[in-house]
Design goal:
With about 70 residues, the chain is an alpha+beta fold. The chain has 2 helices and 4 strands; from the N terminus they run αβαβββ. The radius of gyration is 12 Å and the shape is globular. The mean pLDDT is about 95.
Length: about 70
């Protein structure tokens, strides 16, 4: 996930920013699974903030976009 690390690294500590499945080059289902982990346990250098944006795919509401806050000072 080098792309994710690059995105997080560009942000200042405390900055709020959005991650999406398109931005990270993931399919919607994979992003939903990973985003659930980030919501529960935090991500590499960030924590989830706010309510995730969900999209309907095959009758399921999957997380398509997630607002996060950078916690790692770099």
């Amino acid at each position: 996930m080098a792309k994710l690390e690059d995105i997080v690294k560009r942000q200042k500590q405390g900055a709020r920013f959005v991650l999406s499945f398109q931005m990270l080059g993931m399919d919607l289902s994979t992003f939903d699974t990973v985003a659930q982990t980030w919501i529960d346990h935090g991500g590499p250098g960030f924590e989830a903030a706010g309510v995730p944006f969900r999209k309907v795919a095959d009758g399921e509401f999957l997380i398509a976009r997630l607002t996060v806050v950078k916690t790692d000072p770099d």
